[in-house]
Write a structure and sequence with these properties.
The structure holds 3 protein chains of 3 kinds.
Chain A (H helix, E strand, L loop, with lengths): L5 H19 L18 E8 H18 L3 E8 L1 H12 L8 E5 L3 H6 L9 H6 L11 H5 L2 E2 L2 E2 L1 E14 H7 L10 H7 L16 E4 L9 H9 L17 H12 L13 H9 L3 E7 L3 H6 L11 E4 L11 E9 L6 H12 L1 H11 L6 H5 L7 H18 L9 H16 L5 H15 L2
Parallel strand pairs in A: 1-2, 1-3, 7-8
Antiparallel strand pairs in A: 3-10, 4-5, 6-8, 6-9, 6-10
Chain B lengths: L2 H50 L1 E4 L4 E5 L3 H8 L1 H32 L6 H7 L2 H4 L2 H12 L5 H8 L11 H29 L3 H9 L4 H29 L3 H6 L11 H11 L3 H32 L1
Antiparallel strand pairs in B: 1-2
Chain C lengths: L2 H8 L4 H30 L3 H4 L13 H7 L2 H34 L5 H10 L5 H15 L5 H25 L4 H8 L4 H12 L1 H16 L3 H6 L7 H9 L8 H34 L3
Helix pairs in contact in C: 1-2, 2-14, 4-14, 5-8, 5-11, 6-8, 8-11, 8-14, 9-10, 11-14, 13-14
The chains are: A alpha/beta, B mainly alpha, C mainly alpha.
Amino acid sequence: MVKFDAANAVSRRALMVAAAAVMLTGVPAYAQDNGLGTPEQPVEVRMIANEAFANQWQTLMVPEFNKAYPNIKVTIDGVPYVELLAKTMLDATGPTPTYDILIADDPWVPQLAEVGALADLKSAEFAGWTAADYDWADFNAAPLAAGEWKGVQYGVPLRSNMLMMFYNRALYEKAGVPEPTPALTWAEYLEQAPKLVQDTNADGKPDAWAVDTYFVREPLTPTIWQTIMNSNGGRLLDDNGKPAFNSEAGIAALETHKKLLEFAPTGAVSHGFSESLQAFRQGVVATMFNWGSVFKGSAIDPKTTTLKPEQVGIQVMPLGSTGPGAHRGIWNGTVSAKSEHKQAAWAVVQWLSSKQGEAWHSANLGVFPARKSTLASEPSEAWLKPVFAALQQAYDASEKGQMWRIRHPRSDAAQQILADEVSRAMAGQATAAEALQTAADKIEKVLN
Amino acid sequence: MTMAAERSARHSRSRTWTRLGDFASRWSFMAPAAIILGALLAYPIFYTIEISFSRFDLMTFSAVEWVGWENYAHVLDDYRFWASMKVTLIYLALALPIQIALGFGIAFLINAEWRGRAVVRALFIIPMVVAPVVAGGVFRMILDPLWGIMNYLLGLVGIGPLDWFGDPNLAMAAIVIIDTWRWTPFVVLIATAALLALPKDVFEAADIDGANWWSKLWSITLPLLVPIIAATFVVRWLGAVKMFDIALAATYGGPGGATNVINLFIYEEAFRSLRFAESAAMAVIILVLTMILTGLFLVGTRRLEDHY
Amino acid sequence: MSALATAAAGRSGRPKTGHRVRVAAGVFACVVFLFPVFWMVLTSLKDQRDIFTTPPTLFFTPTLEHYIGYMQRADITRRLINTVIVAAGAGIVSIVAGSMAGYALARIKLRGAGTIGVLILLSRGVPPIALAVPMFLVARKLGVTDQHITLILAYCTFLIPYVMWLMRGFFLALPKELEESAMIDGCSRFGAFVKIILPISLPGLLSTLIFSMILAWEELLFALVLTNRYASTIPVAIAGIAGDTVNGANWGALTAVGTITVVPVVIFALLVQKWLIQGLADGATKG
């Protein structure tokens, strides 16, 4: 009653034959690194990535990569986002990990680095494999810092994303409110918000609202509160690594985040990434705080949105007392420290993040670049121009205010605590001060 | 030795052999299941118990240092654990009775003799087959306060927009609705079978005695159905305790933890926070509680069966 | 005819109306329960921007792009095949082991078997999350991660108790003399089981097999942890579509893939539904 996958059985046999051959030739298996492969003996590199883009990379990115490196076979496995960290940890901590390339979200690099799963990309070994014109300095500081921990560079930004403000010009016009500019402050924004709750079809009930964003109980919701806090000078952790977010700035920021609910559509307290996106795309909300990567689907693609390209604007989030707000969300390409094909793995990651690779990636798959040169150059499509401009502003803002999630080996546990407490505040089950105090107490215990 | 003694000695030897053979053949029926389950579950259960008493090291994914009851103390100290237990109890108290009652009621209804009876019965399986994530997602769409068809229909009869996922009570109602939608068909199909097998002669005798519909229900139908109601309850109870994917897909455990059932909390602690030791401690606590309560149910079931 | 229907028809007064109300109520319940399924199929035919309109639309230009787009993806078709293999495999293994164990509990006098049976039933109370990680660790040590057999065995851990409990009920309903007469004629116990008991309980076996396969078909957690690529199943793909953090949940695709996964099981169930009800009728009453 046992059914085997024939292909898997064959590949296992092939592996055994290869291992035997290797042993006969006297090269110890664990030290093997057959470089970039040869036509007779191609190298196989395995990557674990977010399911959301694994298929796109496998079918579109890998063939393009193979034009430059024909002897490296890349297999990409997709895992849903919420399980990706656990699966990566499970694999990377084993004696012989399956994956050579680990695609890590922004706050995961410290955790993976601490368990010894990641290779140092600037080490002598890797420097020998890095092209001369790779130009590390060309990366914007904020995205590059996402792959760094304790002074070691473990990852390079492959998909850069920033939390930004989208706005619907038509709704602003209808309400008679001036369009947002990067000089818009939070005070002004909150002042304008009531006017943006409109009844556009004169049936007595409001059907257009001012804002929609993350409010639901999930790990990414606290990023909105955090951006407000950061742009007003608040910080998540102080220099000693102790929670500093239950300060006045933090409490005020959480109360602002909660206040947004008053101007959000019915049921917004359970809205997250998808729902706020839908609200904006249906023309139901005037502004949305969401990840920049959804711009194409919200402004350009008629199959997914009712809005026209000229209707949609994108910029950094409103100004706090110290500067505009943005939040970094970077997918890093990292190489497994225990990989047997480090050179080939680095070839893939390096190619994708190189000047040419990033330009291709951005033009063909609509991914946001991290390099200053790519952002400064003429984008492949006209509508990308304002997006690139906003993106550059966002990088500068986030670098200045350290606008990213907690960087610590236990950051995920801390983020989950923040998610729980922010959600309680949103639901009115605790005041902002109480919620943040509970979070601070718990996080202090977790981080030690 | 005399012939008789030889024969009896041979008999007793062969009787021993046949008895051994019979013993072996009888136990061989139990063997595959016991061996498979024993082999597959022994290590995982042992591992879970071990790491619940130890400090967990992510680098090797194993227990490194015996810390006694420390993890359990952490768990019992965490207000989120108790909130989650309370949520789970509310959910069980609502969902189980509704599913059993509704299931048997609908089974009675669809059992009426008519042409389409077989089709209706077959169509009823479909909700069970829809993947939990899809079911959660579809209901999220249906119950959405802004875009959902439910609020639209309710609006037509004048009931204001209900915030299904923002109001803690309505969110719990939403979870119960989705779970009931998925599992009532299971109860319906079992109940249909049970109703079909009810003996006709008792009812005919009651009819002759002039009994009306209500007294027939109470004195005959229900008592005869008690064993199957109890068995379905136990099976559903074991399944309902494990529910977490519906809550995850529909309400994310919100608002503010109002639908954070215990298995969802265990999942979050393990996979999101990577706190495997605490998560294992919770799993052990839940296992023990489930075993005790199931034991009580089984004893109670036996008593009810004997009574009727 | 069911006893209750006979009773209803035989009553003097207004039997027909009461009966009609009952039938109508039954059909109404069916419609209510199938509405979300209808909504799911409807959504799968809509463009993304038609899904979240206020008010919800029933009239729109339908599109098959979600179906075509997803069915063309190699990983979706591979996952669909894997799900079929794993569900069938787990269903068959659990039926064989579970029905044998259920038979042992029902018909064979064994001291201690009852305790083992209760323990097996209680094993269903273990939170699956607790089992997934250690199972993965063992599978990795044995080198069998990402293979169908691993997933099949993992599913058996929660299917076998379920099968055993149900089949025990079916076997209890059979008259005791059945296999005794065969064994007196020289048949072995196992032979009697296979040649006599099983054919008679075929309806019960089939219905239990269907429920086991349904449970295995939609299982997500073990599939996520124990497989990477070669044995990955459809529920993982569905979770990926729902949890898409880059483009937002593609509701059209989600419902399309959801509909695709419902269809095979429904067809299978419709084909065997005749035996399904009859099978449950015998087994469940002695649970």
